[in-house]
Specification:
Elements (H helix, E strand, L loop, with lengths): L18 E2 L18 H4 L5 E3 L4 E5 L2 E7 L7 E9 L13 E13 L2 E7 L3 E2 L7 H6 L5 E10 L5 E5 L1 H5 L10 H7 L1 E4 L5 E7 L3 E12 L10 E12 L18 E6 L8 E6 L9 H5 L10 E5 L8 H9 L2 H6 L6 E4 L18 E6 L6 E2 L2 E3 L6 E9 L2 H13 L13 H20 L19 H7 L30 H11 L8 H15 L27 H15 L3 H5 L7 H22 L5 E3 L11 E3 L2 H14 L10 H7 L4 H16 L2 H14 L5 H12 L1 H5 L5 H23 L7 H20 L6 H20 L1
Parallel strand pairs: 8-15, 17-18, 17-19, 19-22
Antiparallel strand pairs: 1-2, 2-3, 3-4, 4-10, 5-6, 5-14, 6-7, 7-9, 9-10, 11-13, 12-13, 13-14, 15-16, 20-22, 21-22, 23-24
Length: 806
């Protein structure tokens, strides 16, 4: 599945992909080199041979590599992927195309053997430096595989080895099954009788091997798999360029996929750790014109071919999604930097193969997986992206169809059907492809981008049509759920934004005067400082769950307001779901699916709000910039967030409990469904890390919203019936039990001896439970409902038992 971009002199003249039942060389050869056989006795007339980087031979269920002497000690990138996986493997998160390892290897001749050594380029030193010897000595390359030389070619220019065992045995560095999967599925062994090499192909710059690995497993991912897990692996070996691209040093203020390095020649009193970015090699054809500020074509543009399996109706949208990036590359000084092409016919390119590393392909996969991915293959020495395959799984259409209905159905008539009009679904596909191409260009998710826009601006037709939903298409901001039914002409689907143009310019602009990576730093820093303080150009990965401005799927700067708008729309959608998802003669499967996804999106809106409580804003800076990096979310925003949660998460969602829907999709389970959702939100809100941050923020900043204030506000919301003397319904009883049980779980940590036992959280929770117990004791008889009183007595008993046990 992996291919290569560079041409290599003499090998380019070889015939590519030539299959033959004849031996590659028929010149008689006498016995030589002692015990080596003659070439024709090893590679007989029955061999199926393929010329390329290595000449490969398949003969009698064996595979031989013919390795030219000129390719010994050359850096080659070895990428291992799962080409086919069993249903349910990895919980459904491991799919065809998933990469399991990537490493650089060198083939070395050692006496009568040939070794494959794994190289590392993480630790570096100048070869002229005295410390270079120590770096080499402390980074000795392991041998991945070794095989005896079987024979040489008639002209002695290449050596032939049997590599069958490399792919049929279990070699840890390239196999499919890691330690956690072995444990999960209780894997006993690799069954060699059911493991075999399926096919081998050699291209001018890469070799591809596909082989089946079958494992005996006591608990395979799905029943009916006969205690067996079989996977088709794809091994790609790619020759890396000798003419290395100049690496560009990463800066954490601009989002890029990176490769870590350690420089032992640093003048600092330590090894200097740094990162380089992953990017394609783009160099202008006319450097002088480029210097003058003219748009110049690159020496080698980035070209994506569409998979021949891509339905013709979707091809125009895929092409637009790819070439949308030309706008960003123009900012970097390049025109026609990225090109989308239809798959060539046999007449146009008889050698075309998606497996050939010279071709990057947008693959269309007929799969029930609801996803799309944008992986790439990178030279770890320099960060140069060699090739990439964008993978679009057919059922991803289903995700966007459903989401469009749920989040835009109240506002947009075109979203009120499962037969989404082509104009809308095509535009969604275009932007998904653009997003995945962004990954393949080197850009990670920028979850902070959406917080740059005022939330109410997403209700403006003029604003959204010009600026989209977020400054970056690399954000997760799929559908405009903020717009309300009265807002006309609004854009509902994301698009490329100013951050994307800025990031591509920063990573790809060619600096002709720079002779080293260090020479580029002044210009790179200048470009960042020019945008400093403008939230449109800020980056946040979305990891950590601390910064409410950096969250997946959120829209706008004010998460509370955005979630209010989103819920208002959902409440209008729910009563219409039966009409929008059903048709005569069919059941309610689509209704059940969309309703379930609506609940998941509702939970997402709640999570967006929870993150404000105990939240910390992060603004990435370097030491020469004024201001702090981290600051707590203001008190009034935290209080507003808790108020929203009390009203929308912890109040029984009657709007969601539509009997007309529930009676069509389930016989029971509504109470459990709501309990699980509320439990997750409440547990997330009372998470240990969040509470500890709140304690620390109050200590450092004094006026920060405190845990005690959170408990007071939350208790008043969760136990409203207690203070009003009202009946507690089944949903609220579950919620109140969850509140008490979460507090008890913390008290039990004393007995378990976990680290939280030594923090203020235990004291705070103990105090909260004692306070709650006293209030229940005092007010439990204010209600005349007997079941509610029993419920309160149960809560008291739970608390008392927790205290007596600890």
């Amino acid at each position: 599945m992996i291919k290569k971009v560079l041409a290599i002199g003499v090998l380019a003249a070889l015939s590519v992909g030539c299959k033959t039942s004849k031996p590659v060389a028929e010149v008689p050869q006498t016995e030589k080199n002692g015990d080596l056989k003659s070439y024709n006795k090893v590679i007989t007339n029955d061999a199926i041979s393929d010329r390329g980087l290595f000449t490969t031979h398949k003969l009698d269920n064996k595979v031989f590599f013919e390795i030219p002497d000129s390719l010994f000690n050359k850096d080659m990138l070895w990428v291992s992927r799962i080409a086919k996986a069993p249903a349910g493997y990895g919980g459904g998160y491991v799919n065809a195309g998933s990469k399991v390892n990537e490493q650089v290897v060198r083939w070395n001749k050692r006496g009568k053997n040939i070794d494959v050594r794994v190289m590392s380029f993480e630790n570096q030193s100048d070869e002229e430096s005295p410390i270079y010897k120590s770096v080499k000595a402390n980074n000795f390359e392991p041998i991945l595989y070794s095989a005896a030389i079987e024979t040489t070619t008639p002209d002695s220019s290449a050596y032939v080895i049997d590599v069958t065992n490399l792919f049929e045995d279990e070699v840890a560095a390239i196999n499919a099954m890691n330690a956690s999967a072995r444990k999960k599925y209780k894997v006993k062994r690799l069954d060699k009788s059911r493991s075999y090499i399926e096919e081998v192909h050699s291209f001018p710059e890469n070799v591809e091997v596909r082989h089946v690995m079958t494992y005996d497993a006591e608990e395979p991912p799905e029943r009916g798999q006969a205690s067996t897990i079989s996977m088709l692996m794809n091994q790609s070996m790619i020759l890396l360029p000798e003419d290395k691209m100049l690496p560009r040093i990463a800066d954490h203020r601009v989002g890029w996929f990176t490769i870590g390095k350690y420089d032992y020649n640093s003048e600092a009193l330590k090894s200097d750790d740094y990162e380089i970015i992953r990017r394609w090699r783009l160099e202008p054809k006319d450097i002088e014109a480029y210097k003058r500020g003219e748009l110049v074509e690159p020496v080698k543009p980035i070209v994506y071919y569409l998979d021949p399996a891509t339905p013709k109706r979707w091809r125009p949208y895929f092409k637009k999604g790819i070439e949308d990036w030309n706008k960003a590359f123009e900012e970097a000084g390049f025109k026609n930097a990225i090109i989308a092409k239809d798959p060539p016919s046999k007449e146009e390119d008889p050698d075309f193969s998606p497996e050939d590393v010279r071709y990057s392909v947008v693959r269309y996969v007929a799969s029930t997986t609801r996803n799309a991915v944008g992986p790439s293959v990178t030279d770890p020495r320099t960060g140069e992206i060699i090739e990439s395959d964008i993978i679009w799984y057919h059922n991803h259409l289903r995700s966007y169809r459903n989401r469009f209905m749920i989040e835009a159905g109240a506002q947009n008539p075109n979203a009120r059907t499962l037969e989404t009009p082509e104009e809308e679904i095509g535009e969604m596909m275009r932007m998904v492809i653009a997003h995945e191409v962004g990954h393949a260009l080197g850009l990670p998710h920028n979850m902070k981008a959406s917080a740059a826009y005022p939330t109410d601006s997403l209700r403006s037709a003029e604003f959204t049509q010009k600026y989209g939903l977020t400054p970056s298409i690399m954000d997760y901001a799929r559908v405009n759920y903020v717009a309300q039914p009265e807002d006309k002409g609004v854009r509902y689907i994301r698009m490329m934004g100013p951050y994307d143009i800025y990031a591509i310019n920063w990573g790809y602009r060619y600096l002709p005067e720079a002779k080293s990576s260090a020479d580029e730093k002044e210009s790179l820093d200048k470009w960042i400082l020019e945008k400093a303080g403008d939230p449109i150009y800020e980056f946040g990965s979305g990891y950590g769950g601390r910064d409410p401005q950096s969250q997946r799927e959120s829209l706008g700067k004010d998460q509370v307001k955005a979630s209010e708008y989103g819920l208002a729309n959902m409440k209008k959608v729910v009563p219409n779901l039966i009409d929008w998802t059903t048709k005569d003669g069919y059941g309610y499967n689509d209704l059940e699916e969309v309703y379930g996804e609506l609940i998941s999106l509702w939970r997402g809106y709640l999570y967006h709000v929870v993150t404000n409580v105990g939240g910390v804003y992060e603004t990435r800076k370097t030491a020469d910039q004024e201001g702090v990096v981290y600051s707590p979310v203001p008190d009034d925003i935290q209080e507003k967030a808790v108020e929203f949660l009390n009203q929308n998460a912890f109040t029984t969602p009657d709007w969601l409990l539509d009997k007309e829907i529930l009676d069509r999709i389930q016989s029971t389970g509504a109470i459990e469904r709501i309990q699980k959702l509320q439990t997750r939100v409440l547990s997330y809100l009372l998470d240990e890390d969040r509470l500890l941050r709140m304690v620390e923020n109050q200590q450092l900043h004094g006026n920060s919203y405190s845990v005690l204030e959170l408990f007071d506000d939350l208790r008043n919301g969760v136990f409203t019936e207690l203070y009003r003397g009202e009946k507690v319904d089944a949903y609220r009883r579950n919620l109140q039990r969850t509140y008490v049980d979460i507090g008890i779980s913390y008290i039990k940590e004393i007995e378990n001896g976990n680290q939280v036992a030594n923090t203020d959280v235990i004291a705070l929770m103990r105090g909260e439970l004692e306070n709650l117990k006293a209030q229940i004791n005092r007010m439990q008889y204010s209600t005349s409902d007997r079941l509610s009183r029993y419920h309160y007595k149960d809560l008291i008993a739970r608390i008392e038992k927790a205290f007596s046990d600890n």
